[in-house]
Design goal:
Blueprint: E1 5-6, E2 9-11, E3 17-18, E4 34-36, E5 41-42, H1 71-77, E6 86-91, H2 97-112, E7 116-120, H3 125-135, E8 142-146, H4 150-159, E9 164-168, H5 185-202, E10 206-210, H6 223-227, E11 230-235, E12 242-250, E13 258-264, E14 267-270, E15 289-296, E16 299-311, E17 319-322, H7 326-340, E18 347-353, H8 365-377, E19 385-387, E20 390-391, E21 397-398, H9 403-412, E22 417-421, E23 436-440, H10 443-446, H11 448-451
Parallel strand pairs: 6-10, 6-11, 7-8, 7-9, 9-10, 17-18, 19-22, 22-23
Antiparallel strand pairs: 1-5, 2-3, 2-4, 11-12, 12-13, 13-14, 15-16, 16-18, 20-21
Helix pairs in contact: 4-5, 7-8
Length: 455
């Protein structure tokens, strides 16, 4: 019986394998990304040679992590670097990726008193040395290798017992075993696979820097993010000196942590009091201002929600939002109008979260409603009050997640009272030192003092 010839095509973007040559990848939708990955082979009968193992019989221990000496970096990683693990960090050009990893490399070299290798495919020895001197991380154990030849750089790892190495960047290096220019999908995939193989073989952690596209995605095949153990996103606004480090994927820890750094002349400095970034702690009573504690992952942050109401003569009042989703803002405005009897038809409404912070947490619903009502009535809210609650279309105030964590942060920041849902369940409520913990079931209960006052 004649055998059938089988062809296989692989997508350069996502790694999808198919036996049909098409112009568009059936998995990720990329055009012209399917390439023949092997010579025509003969199909044979499948033979299963793999064996099974009872999971409970495996003796597995948690990996001993390596601290980078940078607390915010370690926390986002889940406690530090894992031996044999590979981390990919992406971010905009000039955001500080190289500075962060150079500081981490110098810190590991100093703490462990062992050699660390920094591979730079984009900068010269003088440029890297100048940054290392400026950030104060010069060490006898910090080694540098510049150039785009990947094999020459990785050969150094076999000649010396390095405990950690950094590759800057995966798009700048050239793998000899694969053809193509630097940064092409085949080259990026080959470079990443070679780094992973070396890290696994030598059982040392590795961190690779990746460029991002204009859409904010890491440049190269999507398969790259699946190959590594951890993917980090390093971001920040052009007008601000603060940088945010988040985990997009983490096989050895949580993806809920947030690390915040401040860029200075001496390098990236971890920010300890994160709530101070978005709150000016002004005690002056101003209408339309409400405070809340929002969660960014597992990190509680104080958010100051500001609303301005201005009378309009036009039939369609304007609604402008920054830091809160506009559709959500319009929905909450309708709830205040309908459920609380506060007319919004004759006012343009503007809402803003101070400091450029964007709040996606439903706990911002109640303070937003309070700020809207306060602005429309032109009556300041009670000072020292923190508002925590989700608001439904019926005007009901719903519980929020991680309430104890939010209350601890509110207590630390000096709030005297909090307004929460009547259905909120708090462990050890008596342990909190608030003057008042006010429970409400409906939005009009929370806004009752405002409803009794005339604008």
């Amino acid at each position: 019986m004649p055998t059938k010839t089988v062809y296989k095509y692989s997508c350069n973007e996502c790694g999808f394998v198919t036996t049909t040559k098409t112009g568009k990848c059936p998995s990720c939708g990329a055009w012209g990304s399917l390439e023949l990955v092997n010579e025509p082979t003969q199909s044979f009968r499948r033979v299963n040679n793999s064996s099974t193992t009872v999971i409970s019989a495996l003796n597995v221990k948690a990996p001993a992590r390596i601290s980078t000496g940078i607390g915010e970096f370690d926390r986002v990683l889940g406690g530090g670097l894992v031996p044999g693990g590979v981390v990919l960090i992406g971010g905009q050009p000039g955001i500080g990726k190289s500075t962060l990893l150079l500081q981490a490399a110098g810190s590991v070299a100093r703490i462990r008193n062992a050699p660390v290798l920094y591979i730079s495919g984009e900068e010269s020895d003088a440029q890297v040395a100048l940054r290392a001197s400026r950030t104060g991380i010069l060490s006898e154990n910090l080694y540098l290798c510049s150039g785009s030849d990947l094999e020459s750089a990785l050969n150094n790892i076999y000649e010396r017992e390095f405990v950690f190495f950094v590759l800057d960047s995966v798009q700048a290096m050239n793998a000899n075993e694969d053809s193509g220019w630097h940064g092409t999908p085949n080259q990026v995939r080959a470079v990443a696979q070679r780094v992973i193989d070396v890290a696994r073989e030598k059982n040392i952690p590795a961190v690779m820097i990746g460029h991002i596209t204009k859409d904010g995605k890491i440049a190269g095949p999507m398969l790259l993010e699946h190959m590594v153990d951890t993917v980090l996103s390093f971001s920040g606004e052009g007008y601000s000196s603060y940088r945010m480090l988040r985990a997009v994927k983490n096989r050895y820890g949580s993806t809920d942590e947030l690390g915040i750094f401040e860029m200075r002349e001496s390098g990236l400095i971890p920010v300890k009091d994160k709530s101070g970034l978005y709150w000016n702690r002004d005690d002056a009573a101003v209408s339309g201002v409400a405070m809340t504690i929002a969660l960014e992952g597992n990190t509680p942050l104080a958010a100051e929600i500001q609303t301005l109401a201005a009378r309009t003569v036009f039939p369609y009042p304007r609604r402008t939002s920054r830091g809160i989703d506009l559709n959500r803002f319009q929905l909450l405005t309708a709830v205040v109008d309908r459920r609380c009897g506060i007319s919004t038809n004759n006012h343009d409404l503007y809402i803003n979260v101070a400091g450029g912070f964007s709040v996606h947490d439903p706990s911002a619903d109640l303070p937003a409603c309070a700020a809207i009502a306060s602005a429309l009535k032109n009556v300041p809210l009670i000072s020292g009050t923190c508002w925590l609650g989700e608001v439904g279309l019926a005007g009901e105030v719903r519980p929020v997640t991680r309430i104890s964590l939010r209350l601890r942060e509110a207590e630390r920041l000096g709030f005297s009272s909090v307004i929460i849902s009547s259905k909120e369940k708090i462990d050890n409520e008596r342990s909190f030192a608030f003057e008042k913990i006010i429970r409400v079931s409906h939005i009009d209960e929370a806004l009752a003092p405002l409803l009794l006052k005339k604008s």
